[in-house]
Amino acid sequence: MKRRLAILATLVAGMVACGGAPAATGIHRPTARATTTPAPNASGATAVYLAAVAVLPETLGPDVAAYNSTCSVSLTSSTCLKTLEQFGSDMDGFRGTLATLAVPSPFHAGDTALKKALADLVGSLATLISAISDGDPGVVADSSGAVSAEGEIFPALGIISTEQQSTPSGAFVASDHTFSAVVPRGWTDVTSDADLLAAHRLTGADLVAIQWDYLGATAGLTVAYVSVQEVTPPLAEAGISPYLKTVVGGVTLLTQPAAFTLDGARGLFDNTRAPSQGNEYEAQDMVVNHAGRTFEIDLTVLQSAFPQELTGFNSLMNSWRWAAA
């Protein structure tokens, strides 16, 4: 098998104006099993909202990069004008998408700020386009206004990130009742988001939880996530270490496999690092055998944020309980 540092592309956006969305890099992926999708709940609504908002930098980044490259020489060129029109169209489209979402109660202030920021940006871009088309001498001033409006987006994302910390902890039980755990405060269970999991080859995962974080205008957005999947066929205990050590695709093994126990079940874990779009991501990969089955548990996060996200991950692991035989 091949190890895969699985970055959820529509969730992980460790970039803003000068970058692109992180691409997946190589690491092994266990064979997924079919599972029953739980009914939508408040946690699911939070996941849908955060997933939609986190896509914004993936749209904003390329638009700003195109603006910087095509409009830096002349704001009044036809190429610059087309770039601005596309920029405005993309932001207006995102604003329209945001308007269709149910806004979970903790996110009202951030959502209001983000919608205002997007409306200001769309309006400023429209004003700039009009000034260029009309040959208005105030084009440069209008350009400064558009940049200022763009900057409003980042504080709004910071508000949303802060609001997410109020997401309460919640009990989780695997669909086949194999195990239970407590998803920590500030994290969101996205296991019920079938479309999201399918898009990132996580269909059948027993548990996927995320912690969405805003790292500032220079670092953008990142999502720490935990995924739990069954490895099939199961591994013999002697096969776990070689499985963990099989790294390809630019993945660097940071630690040798070390022993751990998960509610009495013995397993091994290691840490790996992989680059993506100029960023470094770190993963803690845990493989454990229980009742004749093998489970792989991954924490993946932007490396600079790894220590702080490890706290929530450890909380989830400490709450893990296997079902009674």
**Rg over CA atoms:** 22 Å
CATH topology of the largest domain: Protein Transport Mog1p, Chain A
What structural class should be given to the helix and strand makeup?
Answer: alpha+beta
Which CATH architecture of the largest domain would you pick?
Answer: 3-Layer(aba) Sandwich
Q: Give the fraction of residues assigned to helices.
A: 25-40%
State which percent range the strand residues make up. 15-25%
Write down the CATH class of the largest domain.
Alpha Beta
CATH-defined superfamily of the largest domain: Mog1/PsbP, alpha/beta/alpha sandwich
Measured between the Cα atoms of the first and last residue, the distance is 30 Å
Series of secondary-structure elements, N-terminal to C-terminal: HHHHHHEEEHEEHEEEEEHE
Q: How many individual domains?
A: 2
> Would you count the extended β strands for me?
11
Principal-axis shape equals: elongated
Walk me through this protein's architecture.
- With 325 residues, the protein is an alpha+beta fold.
- It folds into two domains: 56-161; 167-322, 3-Layer(aba) Sandwich (Protein Transport Mog1p, Chain A).
- It is built from nine helices and eleven strands.
- The strands form two sheets. Strands 3, 4, 5, 6, 7, 8, 9 and 10 form an eight-stranded antiparallel beta sheet that branches. A three-stranded antiparallel beta sheet has the order 1-2-11.
- Helix 4 (108-134) packs antiparallel against helix 6.
- The longest helix is centred in the middle third of the chain and has 27 residues, at 108-134.
- 42% of the residues are buried.
